[in-house]
Design goal:
Blueprint lengths: L2 H22 L41 E6 L3 H12 L7 E9 L3 H15 L9 E7 L6 E8 L5
Parallel strand pairs: 2-3
Antiparallel strand pairs: 1-4, 2-4
Helix pairs in contact: 2-3
Length: about 160
């Protein structure tokens, strides 16, 4: 593996660690809203309705990634591959996506795959989903490995 590939992987690893540290530094917004247990009163009271407001604040990101591969040059085929690969995660929303395209032109291929994500699954990959294009010199041409990190809670 040459120095260019090592530098690319080092940058990718650094970016991943930086993102996870930044997201791990944030407190869970739902943890603060859990009521503390109290002893039950001795008299009978009517139950209070639970508030229906959604929690405000940042969402957390899962530590584990969902990974799939795509290949080919036809946009329709790539969209179909993305839809098939992500079908089991259809209700989740992606926080960020790292895409590793193969060979010397891999970064451009990764950018192309990332551009098709929203077309394939608009609710999963919306315009707020962060994407990053990387190069994988050990992979074949016109192939990509896609790493998706989902939010822990739905919107």
């Amino acid at each position: 593996m040459g120095p260019l590939a090592l530098a690319g992987w080092l940058f990718a690893d650094f970016l991943l660690v930086l993102a996870l540290v930044a997201m791990g530094d944030q407190a869970d917004p739902l943890a603060e809203q859990r009521p503390t247990p109290r002893p039950s009163p001795t008299h009978t009271a009517k139950p209070k309705p639970k508030p229906t407001t959604t929690p405000a604040g940042p969402r957390s990101v899962m530590k584990s990634r969902f990974e799939f591969r795509v290949s080919g040059t036809d946009d329709a085929s790539l969209i179909r591959q993305i839809r098939n690969a992500t079908a089991s995660h259809g209700t989740q929303q992606a926080a960020f996506v790292l895409t590793f395209g193969g060979t010397q032109n891999g970064t451009a291929y990764a950018r192309r795959v990332n551009a098709l994500l929203q077309t394939a699954r608009p609710r999963m990959f919306d315009r707020d989903t962060a994407t990053e294009d990387f190069l994988n010199l050990q992979a074949a041409s016109n192939t990509a490995k896609v790493w998706v990190y989902f939010y822990t809670t739905p919107r």
